[in-house]
Write a structure and sequence with these properties.
By secondary structure, the chain is of the alpha+beta class. It is 46% helix and 16% strand. It contains 23 helices and 21 strands. The strands form 3 sheets. Strands 1, 2, 3, 4, 5, 6, 7, 8, 9, 10 and 11 form an 11-stranded antiparallel beta sheet that branches. Strands 12, 13, 14, 17, 18, 19, 20 and 21 form an 8-stranded mixed beta sheet that branches. Strands 15-16 form a two-stranded antiparallel sheet.
């Protein structure tokens, strides 16, 4: 079947629900507040606590920004290929492009460590709202932000003194209406075990992205290690390489990144009128610059393929957001939702008028928006430099006085990301840095003090070339020496990127102080009142916005009806061969073509299901009621792009690769008999 057009108008659906009135398949629920009675009423069955505990302990958060799950007793992790693409690219060399050709470890000793990757499993969730609110007390503005940051650092350190194997994270829910302490068992040695060719995972490319029917083999396997050995994971999901059944209930367990369903209308207006237009222009231009630069030679294409994929994915998501907020009917529905909550809260003196408080904060944000957006250049080498400069400053302070991201509980992951070896492409660093600096000059103006701070008397091109060619931060040994040397090493460094980071860092802190005082502090107070208003109006049917913390959502396998035609719930291998044209992005991977005769062509490939997912859910297991994993979530359809702001139950669908498709790939396309034996062990 021909792929659906992504130019679908974002019309208002009758199923667009007021926030808090969660029904049927809507909701990114925390594990300590699963709506058991509601699901039992809608589906005739709901999981018990033992089921939820097992699913929680099998769920994995990958610190690279994805979700995953344990699928064997020996630390084997199922996720998406696009979640390990950076790892494959980092492990590649000019003569060995692992991203393009895929990777199959024939022995455990062939499994290779992914730089910067860490796997985390939730072992406990505790409500710390009382402690947090007591710590913040009556403080306002920057003082409230500092009190909140200090309380978080203190709670995390007290709960997780062992930072080698554990991590604690206080998560703000409902915009600060609740605070939960998530405790994690972490594994810092994560290795790639199996991944298909990039052409198999990304078949259809950008035209098929956020669309369905889909034919993407977007699956991969990692393995968690500790002390050089695979970890024991008895609480794993069972592998079930079976066909998805239309109408069957499924669960998606993962870490959705960020939603904005609890924003007020002044915040939506800021997104529509200030933030998104600039973001759209920036992403579009960066995409063009990347494509042009990658056309120079094959090596550049290899080095930047995964970067371009990320830019195109973000651009398409931004386009969907822009369309949603510029759709008059959809925007009116958001206003009606706010009006309903205001009406339900009228006369409640304890709540007052937080909407006006938010509007004042957003006006303050608008005044510094351009400066904050362009306060520093972009690029991995500059990120290394800034993190090293800041870490040296912050580590010298008491734990409770540090910036977020530099507390004792956060430092181990920061150190890992800084010091793990990974390749740096100088041409790509220069492109990224000069692009961001040129945009800073364009939006701020050539005579703005911040432009003069960023550029001095140099051009964006000349400054980027001088810094990238002169720095030694691409060498992990140099980074380690600066990390270990602390403030003295940073102060004494003549590395041009470190010198530059020292020069611009103070201005970034200045802007942060303004933001904390005029925006974050007031928003913290206002959002707590808004949370109270929602609880009073809707009770415990309110679920929090996504925060890249563990959630569970449920729904049914199924397609939808569009323009009078039924969209099926699954695709097949035969459909992939029919859709192939031989030209990118519709060229089938070589291994597919070579092994076509071995395949069950009518077997399931990808599937659609009505669950509430978003970015960050990539790699999440799709689980049936018997705790069998039957797929790995990797996308949503074009109708799901508006779900950042409000869930539309009519045509929004999640998309996953089936375990049936991955089983065929493991048997016939990219043979991995040892993995198959492990997956089917009982």
């Amino acid at each position: 079947m021909k792929a659906l057009s992504r130019g679908v108008p974002l019309l208002v659906s009758a199923a667009l629900l007021p926030l808090g009135a969660a029904h049927a398949d809507e909701g990114m629920w925390t594990f300590d507040a699963f709506p058991t009675q509601r699901m039992r009423s809608d589906f005739g069955w709901a999981p018990d606590q033992a089921w939820l505990d097992r699913a929680r302990l099998a769920a994995v958060r990958l610190t690279g920004g994805c979700s995953a799950s344990f699928v064997s007793a020996e630390g084997l992790i199922l996720t998406n290929q696009h979640c390990v693409a950076e790892c494959l690219s980092d492990l590649s060399t000019p003569g060995n492009d692992l991203l393009a050709k895929g990777y199959v470890a024939t022995r455990r000793s062939d499994e290779r460590q992914c730089p910067g990757q860490q796997a985390e499993i939730v072992t406990g969730i505790r409500d710390v709202t009382g402690q947090m609110k007591q710590a913040i007390g009556a403080a306002t503005g920057e003082a409230a932000v500092k009190a909140r940051t200090a309380a978080i650092a203190t709670i995390e350190k007290a709960t997780c003194p062992d930072t080698v194997t554990s991590r604690c994270q206080v998560v703000s829910l409902y915009g600060g209406g609740q605070y939960k302490l998530y405790s994690y068992r972490k594994y810092s040695d994560v290795r790639i075990a199996w991944a298909p060719e990039d052409a198999a995972s990304k078949f259809g490319g950008d035209p098929d992205n956020y669309n369905f029917p889909r034919y993407a083999l977007d699956g991969a396997f990692l393995r968690a290690y500790e002390n050089g050995r695979p970890v024991a994971t008895p609480q794993h999901l069972r592998w079930a390489a079976r066909e998805p059944v239309a109408g069957e209930p499924v669960f998606v367990v993962g870490n959705p990144g960020s939603t904005q369903r609890m924003l007020t209308m002044s915040q939506f207006a800021y997104q529509r009128e200030v933030n998104l237009p600039v973001t759209l222009a920036m992403q579009s231009e960066l995409r063009g610059r990347l494509i042009e630069a990658m056309g120079v030679d094959a090596e550049r294409k290899r080095e930047a393929t995964d970067v371009l994929y990320g830019v195109e994915n973000n651009l398409k998501r931004t386009i969907g957001r822009v369309k949603a907020l510029n759709d008059s009917g959809f925007y009116a529905s958001l206003a009606a939702r706010e009006a309903e909550l205001k009406a339900k809260s009228a006369g409640n003196a304890a709540i007052g008028d937080p909407w006006s408080e938010v509007a004042t904060a957003m006006a303050a944000l608008g005044a510094i928006d351009t400066q904050r957006r362009f306060s520093q250049p972009e690029g991995e080498l500059f990120d290394y430099a800034l993190a090293l400069v800041r870490a040296a400053q912050e580590r010298a302070k008491p734990n409770a006085d540090r910036l977020p991201g530099y507390s004792d509980s956060a430092l181990p992951l920061l150190e890992k990301n800084l010091l793990d070896p990974k390749p740096i492409a100088p041409w790509l660093e220069q492109l990224t840095m000069r692009f961001s600096l040129s945009k800073a000059r364009e939006y701020l103006g050539a005579d703005h003090p911040q432009t003069r701070l960023l550029l001095g008397r140099e051009s964006p091109e000349g400054l980027a070339e001088r810094l990238v060619e002169g720095t030694r931060l691409a060498d992990p040994a140099v980074r380690r020496a600066l990390w270990n040397g602390g403030e003295a090493a940073i102060a004494g460094s003549a590395d041009p990127m470190i010198v530059y980071a020292r020069a611009v860092e103070a201005n970034d802190r200045r802007l942060q102080k303004i933001y904390d005082e005029q925006v974050d502090g007031p928003l913290t107070a206002a959002r707590a009142k808004l949370a109270d208003a929602r609880f009073a109006a809707y009770g415990d049917s309110v679920y929090p916005d996504a925060t890249f913390s563990l959630r569970i959502t449920y729904g049914k396998v199924g397609g939808w009806t569009e323009n009078g035609a039924a969209v099926p719930h699954r695709t097949t291998f035969a459909g992939a061969f029919d859709r192939a044209t031989g030209a990118e992005p519709f060229a089938l991977a070589p291994a597919f073509l070579a092994n076509k005769a071995k395949l069950k062509l009518e077997g399931a490939f990808d599937m659609a299901y009505a669950t509430d997912t978003i970015g960050g859910n990539s790699g999440s297991p799709v689980i049936d009621r018997n705790l069998n994993v039957i797929g790995a979530n990797f996308d949503r359809n074009i109708h799901g792009l508006r779900n950042d702001y409000a869930y539309d139950m009519t045509m929004a669908r999640s998309i996953g690769v089936t375990t049936a498709a991955l089983e065929q790939a493991l048997r016939f396309i990219y043979p991995a008999p040892a993995l198959l034996k492990e997956l089917h062990a009982r």
